[in-house]
Amino acid sequence: MLNASVPAHIIINERKSMETQIVKGNFAISQTDEDKHLAFGWANIAINAGGVVIEDKQHDIIEPDVLEQAAYQFVELYREGGEMHQRGDCAVLIESMVFTDEKVSALGIPKGIIPECGWWIGFKVTDDSVWQKVKSGQYNMFSIEGQAQRIPV
């Protein structure tokens, strides 16, 4: 799993998966370029294309405005990708966009095609052993690393 560290002051809202309109999501690496060691995919989706709030593997929900600010701070201050939250300096961010309804509309993308709020990223993997794990499918998703204050809702 490639991971990206985000600022420590992100607030994540915690909800139980039994509530309606919440689905769990894994965000797979969507595209790779084997020659260039590039991997692209969703870092996180707050609200999917159908308008449903997404819950992550830890049963957390990141509010759209919080996700957007975290993404901007990551790009501004960090940009490094690591391996399994254990070591850094394995990849460097080369692409990042937080899609919101406003941006999707401005781009002329019809509603319902891509998430209502999601963070799309791309990394150049600089570590050959990590790249082999991406290529083999062993690392098939991105994982956002960070600390947050859980707020029950």
From TrEMBL:
Database matches in InterPro entries: XkdF (IPR027924)
Ranges of residues in domain Phage-like element PBSX protein XkdF: 54-151
A Pfam family this chain is assigned to: Peptidase_S78_2
Stated name of the protein: Phage-like element PBSX protein XkdF domain-containing protein
Organism of origin: Acetobacterium tundrae
